[in-house]
Design goal:
Layout (H helix, E strand, L loop, with lengths): L7 H20 L1 H25 L10 H6 L10 H21 L2 H20 L11 H18 L3 H15 L1 H9 L6 H15 L13 H23 L7
Helix pairs in contact: 2-5, 2-9, 4-5, 4-6, 4-7, 6-7, 7-10, 9-10
Length: 243
């Protein structure tokens, strides 16, 4: 009779842990995919910070490899007001999705909010506070969105206002990438796009677009569209040489 190398009692916790992990993966797929999307997106913020901070990051052992590996140029110049607006808007979207019962999108937006805050802090010394006419409009729309959410219990209208404000806040980036695509972090936007696409898998029925809830999917799809545009522009578009 062959004696097993390990008693069955010692293997029981191992298989039990595997079973729990499988159950979590399938039963809480939305949360798992949302967490994975958030993890990917957080990497984009780190790359973006390294790109515009420059300086010691070019020689630091933890970050110097990124300059050659990802083709960083150090030409990114953040506008602080934009990151402040995006931080508040993503916080608003996180609140909207928590109240709407969409945990995956809420996790993603929460990471966006924390990432925007990190970028804002990191760029205090190298960014600019130059305020544009549309910045107050974005703050106003974000405030109205919260009023609609808590006062009128209208998450759909609040979501639309946040997306409109986000688009307005992104005007300098969307327009600037046409004239100066080298001024944006190519790898950063690629990672953001990957995170958005992963978050689509967190929808309740990811392969049935007709079943997607508006509040659950609208902001994620907007992020995918915006980052796809920026990825294509920074990858294939080249500014005209100056004469």
């Amino acid at each position: 009779m062959v004696t097993p190398c390990l008693p069955s009692g010692m293997l029981a916790p191992f298989f039990s842990a595997i079973g729990v992990a499988v159950n979590i993966l399938f039963e809480d797929r939305a949360v798992c995919m949302g967490a994975l999307a958030a993890l990917v997106a957080s990497a984009a913020y780190f790359v973006y910070i390294v790109d515009f901070v420059g300086g010691r990051t070019r020689s630091h052992p933890l970050t110097r490899w990124m300059w050659n590996r990802f083709g960083l140029t150090g030409d990114t110049h953040p506008r602080l007001v934009s990151w402040l607006v995006w931080m508040l808007l993503t916080l608003t979207m996180a609140i909207i999705n928590v109240r709407n019962g969409s945990p995956a999108t809420a996790i993603m937006c929460g990471v966006y909010c924390c990432g925007n805050l990190a970028l804002l802090i990191a760029s205090l010394k190298c960014g600019t506070w130059k305020i544009k006419w549309y910045d107050p409009v974005c703050f106003l729309l974000g405030g109205i969105a919260l009023i609609l959410l808590f006062g009128e219990d209208s998450p759909r209208a609040a979501t639309v206002l946040v997306i409109v404000a986000d688009i307005i806040a992104g005007i300098p980036t969307f327009a600037g990438v046409v004239t100066n695509p080298e001024g944006e972090s190519r790898i950063g936007w690629r990672i953001f796009l990957a995170g958005g696409l992963i978050n689509v898998l967190a929808f309740a029925r990811p392969f049935d677009p007709f079943a997607w809830g508006f509040v659950e999917s609208a902001y994620t799809l907007y992020i995918v569209a915006a980052t796809l545009y920026l990825t294509l522009m920074t990858t294939f578009w080249h500014s005209s040489p100056r004469r």
